Amino acid sequence: MAHNPMPPHTGGKLKPSSAFKERFRTTGTGKIKYQRAGHVHKRFNKSNRQRRELGQPKIMHSTYAKILKKLGFVSRFY
């Protein structure tokens, strides 16, 4: 019988990351809203339409939203 050097996990809660709380918000229907990257950096290389669309918040795909909700990384206040 092999000896396991790691002690068993005794439990505890996973604390939500402050960075995630600032980057993601939940809507009233439970969807996750986030701000798209690339709106500020190198603006002169982007078209007006691209800058306008990057400035609008976007709803996260449901597959990724499910993972984020399971981890508890979403702020419930916005």
From TrEMBL:
Molecular function GO labels: structural constituent of ribosome
Keywords linked to the UniProt accession: Ribonucleoprotein, Ribosomal protein
Keyword set includes Endoplasmic reticulum: no
Pfam families: Ribosomal_L35p
A GO biological process held by the record: translation
Transmembrane segments: none
Protein's name according to its UniProt entry: 50S ribosomal protein L35
